[in-house]
Amino acid sequence: MKSHELRGHSQEELIGLEKKIICSLVQARFKNSMGQLEDTSQLRKSRKDLARVKTILKEREKSSLPLNEQLKGEAKW
After folding, report:
1. Which of 8, 26, 32, 76 is 20 to 30 Å from 39 at the Cα level?
2. Per its UniProt record, what CDD domains does this chain match (predicted)?
3. How many CB atoms lie within 10 A of CB 45?
4. DSSP 8-state class, residue 62
5. Tens digit of each residue's pLDDT (9 = 90 or more) over 31-58
6. How far apart are CA 65 and CA 22, in angstroms?
7. DSSP state, residue 10
8. What is the C-alpha separation between 31 and 77, in angstroms, rounded?
9. What are the chain's domains?
């Protein structure tokens, strides 16, 4: 999935998609360990999709916080 496609989804859809990707990743890892996974690139694709979804969720979370709460987590020079 491309990130511009994911940005069109709602928060609930993204959370559901995150859970779905995690389940498919676990299944793919299990199949890979048993030697039954035919397309091993599926592992990498799933990890990247999961990272994209988590990134968009985190961006939305940060954009909804007030500015002073966003600065709490940043390093102070």
Report:
1. 8
2. Ribosomal_L29_HIP (cd00427)
3. 15
4. H
5. 999 999 999 999 999 999 999 999 999 9
6. 27
7. -
8. 48
9. 3-61 (1.10.287.310)
Helix 41-64 / helix 11-34 crossing angle, nearest 10 deg: 150
- pTM of the prediction? 0.80
Answer yes or no: is pLDDT of 73 > 70.
no
Helices H, strands E: what count in the chain? 4, 0
- The single-letter code of the amino acid at 44 is R
Q: Kindly state the tokens that stand for 66.
A: 């007030």
Which structure tokens are listed for 73?
């987590």
For residues 1 and 49, is the Cβ–Cβ distance under 8 A? yes
CA distance 62 to 31: 36
